[in-house]
């Protein structure tokens, strides 16, 4: 078993990473950042996103584990007080995994420049920083609407609890093979009209976004930000690749949602009388 540890820069995370590395080495687990079997992130969801993008080229070989050192995240199941249990699970690993869908993002250019390709764990966002984005939206290459507004967010089910939720999108269970597109501050009046509602896309469909009358856009892929010039279109679909999380003590998705957004244990029906 080969393991690597990715940590954020907080002192607590650094201390937890050092303790975890010592425990792993005591059990004979090899620390290998080049070809790991398991990638452990120590921090929050942002740290795990960074770890995901660092090893996105070998997703068929690695599984991820999240250790959180702050508030509970959606990808982080472990805390500093149960590191010994985590090491024991790794030592007795049975190769079990929880797999989630990813977002495939492909950018084509007007000037013949080579297309760019990204994978997103959470979402991709298209916007302009200094003016209204005007963008034609196609589903399965069929024109759907001309969007005007601040931007568009396309999210995975696991990413639906992030930026997507903050702009009015629905929370989707990660077992669903679906993508969601959510408008960001769309313009809707008697002249301009959009659906003005989140749209959930099935596995055999794809989304194409074509910016209108602009030479540059801002494209975000998870926490990565890119200023793109001469964009012809951005095509988004469910990726053939999937992300795998080591299935040890994996917290149920709806428990994560309840914990993160409600913060209290759900009341029994009798308590509501």
From TrEMBL:
Its main location: cytoplasm. InterPro entries: ATP-NAD_kinase_N (IPR017438), ATP-NAD_kinase_PpnK-typ_C (IPR017437), NAD/diacylglycerol_kinase_sf (IPR016064), NADK (IPR002504). NAD(+) binds at residues 45-46, 122-123, 148, 150, 161-166, 185. Its cofactor is a divalent metal cation. The active site is at 45 (proton acceptor). GO terms for cellular component: cytoplasm. Keywords: ATP-binding, Cytoplasm, Kinase, NAD, NADP, Nucleotide-binding, Transferase. It catalyses: NAD(+) + ATP = ADP + NADP(+) + H(+). Its EC number is 2.7.1.23. It holds the Pfam family NAD_kinase. One of its GO terms (biological process) is NADP+ biosynthetic process. One of its GO terms (molecular function) is ATP binding. It is found in: Cytoplasm. Involved in the regulation of the intracellular balance of NAD and NADP, and is a key enzyme in the biosynthesis of NADP. Catalyzes specifically the phosphorylation on 2'-hydroxyl of the adenosine moiety of NAD to yield NADP. Belongs to the NAD kinase family. This is NAD kinase. It comes from Alloiococcus otitis ATCC 51267. The lineage of its organism: Bacteria, Bacillati, Bacillota, Bacilli, Lactobacillales.
